[in-house]
Specification:
359 residues, Rossmann fold, 2 domains, 15 helices
């Protein structure tokens, strides 16, 4: 079986969609019966995905924004090079008729749920690509039951061709255990900096309880809301209690998580929730937004759930996290089902089943 992938996100996106693409491909590498090829504008195909040289990266970058090639030529190139299937890993498939089956992974439809977070042009493009994929892909992969329900809500798509495959995580998060530091304890939230991630509300909630505890707060990530986050910390006189770790490496994230006293996830909307899964594997106590995807992933096993729009509820959950830590309890949360569903072996097994089903 020979699978062609659009490699744009895999090579150059270092966060969510890029991580997903790399994890999917790496999981499939364990199957000797699978031959994988990556396609990129102005370069054609990469035969060996395990070795991507700087020269190949530069050639890819030179053609990165030539969207016509990706949208209208890439599928035909994959077909002409003998691929059995084309799989779009990030919400789109090549446009136009080709003779091989197309599969599309759709990660979320947040642009439908929260349209104000997107420009009109972006909403229009995302809507078109999603609608086209729903109508023309032989199979749709989603990363959660929540995204499946939202896709059915907004698009006329045959439910029988939607497959839920939970995303895997970096195996390093499975190899460590929660070991919170006792000096200068802190709570952690890592995510991109944008309004949907809700960092500002978390800072306000933390300000409400900061004088009743000796815990600090670390907010890690990067994005367009950096200046707003920094400004609010200054305005609330929290510069000695709330710290920003900008653009942390994967190793830094792992160490921050292991040594934290708890993970806070106040996002307003998610298609999945990789940080929650990573924290669960490490054994960190978690408080999260009471939104459908987090209920699905955590199976009601988080320490507490809160309304992400309520500063008061978030403050109460932070107090529960403090109480848990002061009681010196070890993590007692049962995430076995979640952890079992989010490993690379499970991802690869389901991928093979889906690929075979469309041939």
């Amino acid at each position: 079986m020979k699978i062609g992938f659009d490699s744009k996100r895999l090579l150059f996106n270092q966060t969510g969609l890029g991580n997903y693409s790399r994890q999917w491909v790496e999981a499939l590498l364990s199957f000797n019966s699978i031959e994988l090829e990556l396609y990129a504008p102005d370069y054609g195909k990469f035969h060996d995905i395990t070795v991507i040289s700087p020269e190949i990266r530069q050639n890819f970058l030179n053609g990165l924004y030539k969207g016509f090639w990706r949208s209208f030529q890439m599928g035909k190139v994959a077909q002409n090079n003998g691929c059995d299937i084309f799989h779009g890993l990030s919400n789109e498939i090549p446009i136009g008729k080709i003779q091989i089956p197309r599969i599309c992974t759709i990660h979320d439809v947040i642009f439908k749920e929260y349209p104000d977070y997107y420009s009109p042009i972006d909403r229009s493009v995302y809507n078109y690509k999603t609608r086209y994929a729903c109508s023309n892909a032989e199979a749709i992969i989603v990363t959660s039951e929540t995204t499946k329900l939202e896709l059915l809500k907004y698009y006329d798509v045959n439910e029988s061709k939607i497959h839920v495959v939970y995303q895997s995580i970096n195996p390093r998060f499975k190899e460590v255990n929660w070991d919170p530091q006792t000096e200068n304890p802190y709570f952690l939230y890592y995510s991109s900096f944008n309004p949907r991630k809700n960092q500002l509300q978390l800072i306000r909630a933390f300000a409400d309880i900061v004088n009743s505890c000796d815990f600090n707060l670390i907010i890690a990530g990067k994005g367009r809301d950096f200046n707003a986050i920094k400004q609010l910390i200054d305005e609330l006189s929290l510069t000695e209690r709330v710290f920003i770790n900008q653009s942390p490496s994967d190793d830094e994230i792992l160490q921050l998580l292991v040594k934290s006293s708890g993970f806070v996830y106040p996002s307003l909307q998610e298609g999945f929730g990789i940080p929650l899964v990573e924290a669960a594997n490490v054994g960190v106590p978690i408080i999260v937004s009471d939104i459908p995807i987090f209920r699905e992933l955590s199976s009601n096993a988080a320490l507490d759930y809160f309304d992400p729009r309520s500063q008061w509820e978030m403050s109460k959950s932070l107090l529960k996290l403090i109480e848990f830590n002061n009681s010196k309890q070890k993590s007692v949360f049962d995430f076995k089902e979640l952890i079992g569903n989010t490993n690379s072996e499970n991802m690869a097994k389901k991928a093979i089943e889906i690929y075979k089903s469309v041939l």
